[in-house]
Design brief:
three-stranded parallel β-sheet; 5 strands
Length: 144
């Protein structure tokens, strides 16, 4: 781009309302005659649809959302079997090092897949199926 190629940007003038009928925005200043939007200082909430039943009230509500819901990062036994060696300790720190979890949430071990190595588990949330498979493989569970 060169200096001779620059074009002056024309800035649009703001609409000046209420400055007489000749301006095109006189008398009612573009607001119409009556109604809520013609008044000064009126505000309609974000879901207002002109008196029609709002969408949020038309949709059926179902279920219940618990306030203190616990969210777990899920790790399956098949992933642990692939990443860990015999006799290692499985806890939150080692799971992060092996890139099986990423956040700071609680961890839950589920019993999907097989485990064939003796491992020490230092995690408190382990499903019944996973617990059974770990004990059958000769591993131990130390609840924190």
């Amino acid at each position: 781009m060169k200096l001779n190629e620059l074009v002056k940007v024309v800035k649009k003038k703001p609409k000046r309302v209420g400055r007489g009928t000749g301006s095109g925005h006189g008398r009612y200043s573009g607001r119409g005659i009556k109604g809520a939007k013609s008044r000064v200082g009126t505000h309609q909430h974000s879901g207002f649809e002109g008196g029609q039943m709002p969408l949020i009230r038309r949709i059926p509500k179902r279920g219940f959302t618990p306030v203190e819901r616990k969210e777990f990062e899920i790790v399956n036994l098949k992933d642990i079997n692939e990443k860990f060696n015999e006799g290692e300790v499985v806890n939150i720190e080692t799971l992060k090092q092996k890139c099986l979890i990423k956040g700071k949430k609680d961890v839950k071990i589920l019993g999907d897949g097989e485990i064939k190595k003796k491992l020490k588990f230092e995690i408190k949330n382990i499903s019944k199926g996973a617990r059974k498979k770990i004990e059958e493989a000769g591993g131990s569970i130390i609840a924190n």
